[in-house]
Amino acid sequence: MKRWQFLMVLAGMFLLAGCSGKKVPPSEVYIIPNFGFSIDIPEGWYTRPHDNGQGFRTFELEADYREIQDKEKMEGIVISLEHRSLDWLNRELGLPEDPTLNDLFQMNIDNVTYMVNPTIEEITLFGVDAIKAEAYGAADIWGIMHMGIIEDEAFLLLVLAPSEEALEEFKPTWEAMVESIKPVEE
């Protein structure tokens, strides 16, 4: 499996749609489409919303931004957020009705191929209880995933790196990005 395919499968828990080519100026606070929150993106990154309006991706490197679907190996950090209705996840991926965080986590495990660090942390993200876990895949991608449920939607926020060392080096920046998340009025 190619590295980009693994990235798509991991984020594919929510069947990510394609992204438009609209670039957000990297020094701006990014307002997450149709989600009511913003996140600070590091200066110099390349960010675009999903065509379906259900999230975004941001890329450390322009090469990954432009060629992510044509490359075997991502070279920099990639961040993705996808949010989907619980009804859609129930219908398409078998998420139980009235799901718990554990149900959401189990659905993720059942629908993608990766290994999860057995240490799962309960956190608060987007103003709700969430789960944080580290994961790695056969395609040599390391990542941190955050998932939770806001009213009638579930979210999956991922940071993916091309190596374990790159992920470790990026963690302080990632933690600052997560701390920067704020509610906004759209």
Annotation keywords:
186 residues; alpha+beta; three-stranded antiparallel sheet; 5 helices; 34% strand
How would you summarize what this structure contains?
This protein is 27% helix and 34% strand. It is of the alpha+beta class and 186 residues long.
Task: Explain what you see.
The protein is an alpha+beta fold and 186 residues long. It has a single domain, classed as Protein Transport Mog1p, Chain A (3-Layer(aba) Sandwich), CATH 3.40.1000.10. The protein is built from five helices and ten strands, in the order αββββαβααββββαβ. The strands form two sheets. Strands 3-4-5-9-8-7-6 form a seven-stranded antiparallel beta sheet, sandwiched between helices. Strands 1-2-10 form a three-stranded antiparallel beta sheet. The longest helix has 17 residues, at 164-180. The radius of gyration is 15 Å and the shape is globular. The protein starts with a helix and ends with a strand. The model is unreliable at 1-26 (pLDDT under 50).
